[in-house]
């Protein structure tokens, strides 16, 4: 039996070595004679890319105290996972809206996906905070507002769960933006207006005093709108010349070096929106390159990323306040702590996803009631 087991392990090792060697050969061929850059990979590997973005976000949240090291700076750049996720979400919204342009259908589909899960997690967090006399829900009115729309974020930039109310606000304006660009392509320049508005929020005093506290939201609006714009190219299966690959690599290298330099010791000495403007070209180019490389990954790795991406909403909601709050007391190192948080959060996220699966039948019932297919 021992000999048979040894032979099986040897065959598996040979198979893995052959797979990696063949992947390396394909990668070298693509670098020497690059194939056309396909926007379609962003749809083909969308869920897996969302999983990659979620892993970046978890690593970012696991960072410790600033020590000026290269490793710390690179982990801080994991904040780009938010921009990657919003860009991919914009692409997905364009596909959904192209199939059914009913605004009512759009809102039902988006909010049924997010809102019930949000209500469960937010209720557990804010009711506990209210009972214990926490600062987020000082009275019953604030408790209801926090559970419904995370009011403490809009009021004073409380960062817990900030992404959920932000993305729901973006979903609210998305169908109107998509109707505009359907009527005239000139409206596709609105992301540039959003970038200019970020500058105004930072430096125009009345705006800064009024809405400057939610800069983390305003600086993510451009990449979301650009994702919607890119959804058209993805749906059309647009291809660019293979030589674009080198430009993508150059942009990633330059943008990443700037962000790492920012995080190495300049944080606090520049407005944060500046780095998030750099995230825009970095996230788009990084996603195109990652989508191109997905086919080179072992099938198991791609499936794991897709699984994480499928429950990314739930992972985001529970990984800090329901998992890491306990794991951090174990005094583990950064990587072991990150792995534990990611594994436990993914397992709990899957359970929560299964628990909230009643949304699917409810959505089908809504479709039948409206006479849709």
Please give the alpha-carbon distance between the first and last residues.
57 Å
Major beta sheet summary: 2 strands, antiparallel
* C-alpha Rg (nearest Å): 22 Å
Tally of alpha and pi helices: 19
Outline: globular
How many discrete domains?
1
Strand order across the largest sheet: 1-2
**What's the helical proportion of residues?**
over 70%
The overall pLDDT, averaged over residues, is 85
What structural class results from the helix and strand content? mainly alpha
Proportion of residues in extended strands: under 5%
Overview of this structure, please?
- This protein is mostly helical.
- It has one domain (37-369).
- 78% of the residues lie in helices and 1% in strands.
- The chain has helices at 2-32, 41-44, 46-61, 70-76, 80-99, 103-131, 140-149, 151-156, 163-183, 190-203, 205-211, 215-218, 221-235, 244-266, 272-293, 299-310, 312-327, 334-355, 359-369; strands spanning 37-38, 239-240.
- The longest helix has 31 residues, at 2-32.
- Mean pLDDT is 85; it is low at 359-373.
List the helices and strands and how they pair.
Blueprint (H helix, E strand, L loop, with lengths): L1 H31 L4 E2 L2 H4 L1 H16 L8 H7 L3 H20 L3 H29 L8 H10 L1 H6 L6 H21 L6 H14 L1 H7 L3 H4 L2 H15 L3 E2 L3 H23 L5 H22 L5 H12 L1 H16 L6 H22 L3 H11 L4
Antiparallel strand pairs: 1-2
Helix pairs in contact: 3-5, 3-16, 3-17, 4-14, 5-9, 5-13, 5-15, 6-7, 6-9, 6-17, 6-19, 9-13, 10-11, 10-13, 14-15, 17-18
